[in-house]
Amino acid sequence: MQSHWNDAEALQYPGELGQRVYSSRLLGRDKSLVLHGGGNTSVKICEANILGDAEDILYVKGSGWDLEFIETDGFAPVRMPHLLRLAQLPSLSDPQMVNELRTHMTNASAPTPSVEAILHAILPYKYVDHTHADAVVTLCNTPSGAQRIRDVYGDRVVVIPYVMPGFDLAHLCGDIFPRECTDNTQGMVLMNHGIFSFGATAQESYVRMIELVDLAEVELKARKAWTVNWALAACATHALRFELATLRREIAQTIGAPIILHTVRDAQALGFARRDDVGVIAQQGPATPDHVIRTKRVPLLGRDVAAYAESYKTYFSAQAGADAKTMLDPAPRVILDPEFGLCTVGRSVQDAFIVRDIYRHSIDTVVRATQLERYQALPAQDYFDVEYWDLEQAKLRKAGTPPLFTGEVVLITGAASGIGKACVESFLARGAAVVGLDITANIADVSNKSAYLGLVCDVTDSAALEAALEGAVQQFGGLDMLVLNAGVFPGGCAIAELADAEWTRVLQVNLDANLSLLRLAYPLLKLAPRNGRVVVIGSKNVTAPGPGAAAYSASKAALTQLLRVAALEWAGDGIRLNALHPDAVFDTGIWTDEVVAARAAHYAMSIEQYKRRNLLKTEITSHDVAELAAELCGPLFAKTTGAQIPVDGGDPRVI
Ligand code: ZN
How far is the CA of 515 from the centre of ligand 1 (A)? Predict the structure, then answer.
């Protein structure tokens, strides 16, 4: 474990709070110390209030902030004297504590102080750092954990037995710490939870954290328990997407909302899920909610998932009141399976990814502890819950009603440009997880959001389509919506000159590929928790064709007819299919400025006139089409299928 303190860098963070920001970020960068909002830091500052009186203030990490990206605004200023008096109380409930913390801040718009604020206050040091270092937690989670901690640290740390984080923990530390602290004390270990360091400067406290955690790592390395070797397990090569989508549907049905199911199948995930002792060692993750383990290939799912989903529901239904105790109910969100590997569940992609990241650290902890001695977690509450709850609570307070497509997955073809790219944005904006397919290599870069997956795919290659669906389901759990957008628009060509090869190429992309994708997507759309939806991006040419576009017009007309038949065939499965017929959308790859200028000149119009040559004299953009495509998948069109809607500003030939 290395110190990353850099004097030149530190100088760019002036003041006592600035230094706090800098070293907090250093801690946050190291994922073996803190993950996703875990850990917290503070600094005690004396400052003048508006009346000119000096006040001792604890600046402590606010809930909802991640140390890695924290700023000065991420620290909540709380009056120290009040915190110290609170620590003397015999008991204080979590909601009472949150109320006291919030009402004794000096900045009304600061975030809610960390639930460990009182604990920070009672430690008599200017800078206090707290992490859940993997190495320290690993040592703790063995039968002789307490002895190991004493052997490694001697009198450099005060050891606090495990208590649930919150007021009781602060109270206990207030008892033990002053009694046991000596001149050699540099930190404090909370058994099965994490470690504190402190110092007179941000640098001293940070460097002590690194040194203390390093001692635990060195101990684990000396006992050959640090390095975990995962033999690359042989993976099943058959498709998993139907089983995964079925699992997702069952969970979603039980909790009454669609969910994201993310699957990891690397050496670590498969290696752990296939261990003979996984049923024993994974029963209590030290850093994760409960989870379901399937050690045998049994038909899905029965009792396990019902119980699993029930507690998941408790978790999410708790958000309204945000009552602390209810929020602490563990939400089982991990499934281990010898074929799937590690699956994590979340209401959103971000939630599922957070659980994945935390669980991967848990796996290391469990296996290292097993290599050291034997893994033994507390039968009590998972240690991370409270601080994670901290983050969750802040998120939920901010969130309000979740976006329309939260927990749902859409696949969009031709997503690298034009209408397809605009659809990516419209669906992401509505909370969907988006899989974008395109033949161009930059498809992965269309969005940098974690809810977006871009895959290079030639839609005329059905094996490539199948692989893309497999990838989409492993990433997000299923398929709820499909936007058939990919298409080619060849230059004008009269029928008399139309070559067979050109005709065939246009029909392959605009028609045949969509048949393949619809056929492949159908079993997945049938499993969509809120029923499958398909949007076809057609063309005005379907109802009002123009000369010179025979192949294009015929392909889009045939595609529309395909959609109408599918609407008849799949209505019994609840799947809705509707088409949009846009016209004159000029902000796409096809229409360069030169082409628009040439066409305008051809009609003896200005560019502006040409772009608005419709009854409403309005310009139609990719965004307009994409927004309507997204809404077609929403509740406004819940009772519409097989419809064709023009997006053309009004055309007398269409009307
Ligand atoms: Zn903690």
Answer: 53
